[in-house]
Design a protein that fits this description.
The chain is mostly helical and 460 residues long. The protein has two domains: 396 residues, MFS general substrate transporter like domains (Growth Hormone, Chain: A, Up-down Bundle), CATH 1.20.1250.20; 52 residues. Helices cover 79% and strands 0% of the residues. The protein has 15 helices and no strands. Helix 10 packs parallel to helix 14. The longest helix is centred in the N-terminal third of the chain and has 32 residues. It is globular, with a radius of gyration of 21 Å.
């Protein structure tokens, strides 16, 4: 790599990491201040699920679309549009008068985040071409996921304690606007060497299908046989089936289904799905449970999130030095194993009314998350053709955030189950343990997928 190429790559790494940090700060902002936000907006228990999950809906429904558009029409262009949209939608969240407006703004924030994550990782895949360079860049990018999750709840809780939860969104909107104005000048444009086409049927069927499925899953906590759950679930499943058929026959598909014949791509996608289910889902709900069941303050809950995400940040960042020495499948297996061990170590914390009981488990599971993030970022760009790196990022992150949405919904359902006789609504200590057990089982399933691929490689 020449000096000019190295300078261009370093600028891309800085801008993409800064934008990724903003996305994750925004993603986790409501976690520690959910009770205050819900009270201010008049949101009930079911609506509170949407206060958290709305951004995941926007992310999951548009990540693959954003990656495909970036490859075809310019990754820098899609990245910049994402930053501009993040600034506008975050400002809207700051002034939202009611829960409906806030949820709509969070969905748009998810769309903006999808453009930033998919195109950003695609920009890094284009800027860094060697295995060592990509391991360094993707590990640094993955560390921003942990840093954002660590700082977001603390920042929102701190600002809420001295003023209002809305201040966080005002500041974040300003930062996104500044980065949109200045950051785009530091990036070099890149796109695939093919005729650009918009896969309109694919965009419509995938985006709408995923949105309907996630709506159904979120509504499922109030009953799975209700029309409000069954109708969007069935329609969403049908649209996703149509998407597969469209992509299989399309001349320029948004997702090349032939990639699923590659074992490494399958493992990367399934690993991302189970990372969302096992790592992101339960950990997103835990701060709220700590507030409701133990009486931890908003800042205290943010501190717990910081312990988990801080461990994730440190481990991901270190993998830029060790990443090429450890096979990504082994990283995935170890990451899932640590996640399961960490959850099991926290069992009984709510019943004991002790937040201290969570610290060892948070450190262990956070370290596991760091390994998962670094391995998945590396696999996302290494398992697809060089001219489709943004599409690979979009597919990987789509699986991750679909898993996260499912994991959050399943965790809230588990937390509100096993209520004492005569109690309705809310959460229970036994439900908190059910969340941890669910996460551990899902993590072990993810470990099994990673180990199966490693064994397959060993025998071929």
């Amino acid at each position: 790599m020449s000096r000019d190429e190295a300078r261009t790559a370093s600028r891309a790494l800085f801008v993409v990491c800064a934008a990724t940090l903003l996305v994750l700060l925004n993603y986790t902002a409501p976690v520690a201040v959910l009770p205050q936000t819900a009270a201010s907006l008049g949101a009930g228990l079911t609506t509170q699920t949407w206060l958290i999950n709305a951004i995941t809906l926007g992310l999951a429904a548009t990540l693959l679309v954003a990656g495909s558009l970036g490859d075809d029409f310019g990754r820098r262009r899609v990245f910049w549009v994402g930053l501009a949209l993040l600034a506008v939608s975050t400002a809207a969240a700051a002034v939202a008068p009611d829960a409906g407006t806030f949820i709509a703004a969070r969905v748009v924030q998810g769309v903006a985040g999808a453009a930033i994550l998919a195109a950003g990782l695609g920009l890094l895949g284009h800027a860094y071409r060697t295995n060592h360079g990509r391991a360094h860049a993707t590990a640094r990018w993955a560390s921003m996921l942990g840093a954002g999750i660590a700082i977001g709840p603390l920042a929102s809780a701190g600002l809420a304690s001295i003023g209002s939860w809305r201040w966080f969104y005002v500041i974040l909107a300003a930062l996104a606007a500044v980065l949109a104005v200045t950051g785009g000048r530091l990036l070099a444009e890149s796109r695939a060497a093919r005729v650009a086409r918009i896969d309109v049927p694919g965009v419509l069927t995938l985006g709408t299908g995923l949105a309907l499925v996630l709506v159904a899953v979120t509504a499922g906590r109030t009953g799975w046989v209700r029309p409000a759950t069954l109708v969007p679930l069935v329609l969403g499943a049908l649209l996703l089936a149509v998407f597969v058929a469209v992509e299989a026959r399309g001349r320029a598909p948004m997702l090349d289904l032939a990639l699923f014949r590659r074992p490494d791509f399958r493992v990367a996608t399934l690993g991302a799905l189970f990372t969302g289910l096992a790592a992101l889902g339960p950990s997103t709900v835990l701060p709220t449970l700590a507030q409701r069941l133990i009486g931890v303050s908003a800042l205290g809950a943010a501190g717990l999130a910081f312990v988990w995400a801080g461990a994730s940040f440190v481990v991901s960042d270190q993998m830029r030095r060790l990443g090429t020495r450890v096979a990504p499948h082994r990283q995935l297996a170890l990451g899932f194993a640590l996640t399961a061990v960490g959850y099991l170590a926290m069992l009984g914390y709510a019943d004991a009314h002790s937040w201290l009981r969570t610290i060892p488990g948070l450190l262990i599971s956070g370290a596991g998350s760091g390994l998962l993030n670094a391995a998945l970022a590396r696999l996302a760009v290494a398992t697809v053709p060089a001219d489709r790196v943004a599409m690979g990022s979009g597919a990987n992150n789509t699986a991750r955030y679909v898993g996260a949405a499912l994991g959050v919904a399943a965790s809230i359902t588990a937390a509100s189950s096993l209520l004492p006789a005569g109690q309705s609504g809310g959460f229970s200590a036994h439900g908190a343990d059910a969340v941890l057990l669910l996460g551990a089982v899902l993590a072990l399933a993810g470990m099994g997928i990673a180990l199966a691929r490693r064994n397959e490689r060993a025998t071929t």
